[in-house]
Amino acid sequence: MRKLYEGVYQLNLPVAQPIHQVYAYLILADKITLIDVGVSTEVCRETLQVQLAEIGLKIADIDQIVLTHHHYDHWSGICWFSKDIPIYLHHRFYEVSQIEGSDPNKMAQMLNDFVYQVGLPKNYSGDCLQIFKVASYHLPFSNLHIVREGDVIPYTNGLYVIEVPGHATTQIALISPTLNLAFSADVLIYNQNLSVWMEQKLPTDCSRPKFMLAYLDTLQKLRKKNLSKLYPGHGEDITDIEGQIIQRLLHIEKKKEQILKKIDASTSQTAWEIYTRLYSKRFIERFFTLTFAETFGVLDLLVLEGKIEMDETKTPFQIRKRVDQL
Asked: Given this model, what pLDDT does residue 326 score?
């Protein structure tokens, strides 16, 4: 537990490796608001109880919850709360949670189709692919509130929503106009360059999510806010926001050069074939989910820049250098 400002606290909750910890934020105003809730483990629940007790509170005292995005480390601990507690979440998070509850088989089949389309081998299946799902748990709660860009969360001293996709299509940050700071979830993690995750296409999507393009737009949106500080979902507070953004952008530019060199000029390849030329087998086994997402996201950027072509009419997608780039 760390007091940030009067009535604002950071809770440090345990998560399994390799994440180790996630932050939730407590806002004490006319009502008590918790931003994110940690994971659905007993040790996380006990840690939450202990830290709330430090300021004389218990779980039942929380009046409302804001979920910043769908990744399990930020929201799966919702199971410890009353089924009628008000929950504020991104409209896409709400949408997929209802699909998952009404037809989980449909979501499972969409996930399998997506994995095949992007060219992953069959041994990359099961639990390690759950990260590609927008959600893997139905929210059986009766008081869900959809939020969008600019919405103010009630009883939080004016915190308002900005949509910040890229790390997750469902991700929001909360900005305090009086303090000129944001509770920024996983938009930026201090000195961490791997920031994007892949997600499957939903039934309502016209096309698959271009998460890297969305992430670059999010960084520019964040720049324009001229905030003094970010309180992230993991790691250190961020005060040099511009420096961290520049670091990400330089990393992505370098990765574009590296990936372009690995694309065979004479034939089509899948994203997985390009990825395995870029990284060793041992590295892939340790860091697959983040590094494959980044690689695929950079391929989307190279398509946008006209340096490569991606044929999505074929399964798996076929990628090749443009003729005028040879």
From this structure: 56
